[in-house]
Design brief:
Elements lengths: L1 H5 L3 H16 L2 H4 L3 E3 L11 H9 L3 E8 L4 E6 L10 E3 L5 E3 L6 E2 L9 E5 L3 E2 L5 E2 L5 H16 L3 E6 L20 E4 L2 E4 L16
Parallel strand pairs: 1-2, 1-7, 7-10, 10-11
Antiparallel strand pairs: 2-3, 3-6, 4-5, 8-9, 11-12
Helix pairs in contact: 2-4
Length: about 210
């Protein structure tokens, strides 16, 4: 998959990201969301920043992830709709832009009552049944497990949408039991709800991010 990414120019990948953002913005899951959890993309990763900016302009509660050093965990921090996205982020771990740390802006799933919540997540690949292949560090698997548990307890609806390039979606692959799936996948070609169960890998390396 990484070699496939290197076969495309950056302008082409940026164009695919723009189209995927337009698809996402047009979906009911986006329109109805009170909270949008998005992310800042790595180089050659599908980039949802247009949808993130649009959600801010729509006065939705928007939050971005920040890795907590030395813990293997991440937290989300909400953004201000009155400041540019670039002014509210800086380069963090793994050279990914992260929100500036502000305890007053910490998004806590356990107290969230502002749903529905839409979580837009990256990945190297997404399978037809919602399987997600990450980068091997487990940040998203751990956070999504926490998010699902907390919002379910609060009675808040959640949609987890994978955001990727068209060639990163649709090929079946195996995952481990602790790998968290997505509910839908967004690409430049459209918005696809996932169906079917997960396939579990009984042995081998983790497929977490």
């Amino acid at each position: 998959m990484r070699s496939a990414l290197r076969g495309f120019t950056l302008p082409h990948l940026e164009g695919l990201s723009e189209k995927a953002s337009a698809v996402l913005i047009g979906e009911a899951a986006f329109a109805e969301a009170g909270v949008v959890l998005s992310y800042c993309a790595m180089e050659r990763e599908a980039d949802p920043h247009i949808a993130t900016d649009f959600a801010l302009r729509q006065k939705k509660k928007v939050a971005l992830p920040r890795c907590v050093p030395g813990t293997g965990l991440m937290e989300f921090y909400t953004l201000s709709p009155d400041e540019p996205l670039s002014a509210q982020t800086k380069e963090g771990m793994w050279h990914i832009r992260e929100p500036r740390q502000n305890p007053l802006r910490l998004f806590e799933p356990e107290t969230c009552m502002d749903g529905p919540v839409l979580a837009v997540v990256p990945g190297i690949a997404f399978g037809p049944g919602g399987e997600r292949l990450g980068r091997g560090r487990g940040y998203y698997d751990r956070y999504l497990a926490r998010l699902r548990s907390a919002l379910s307890a609060n009675g808040v609806a959640l949609t987890v949408a994978g955001f990727c390039f068209p060639f990163q979606h649709g090929t079946p692959f195996c995952v481990q039991e602790h790998d968290e799936p997505v509910d839908a996948v967004v690409t430049a070609c459209g918005f696809s709800w996932c169906r079917g169960g997960k396939q579990f890998m009984q042995s081998g390396s983790s497929t977490e991010r």
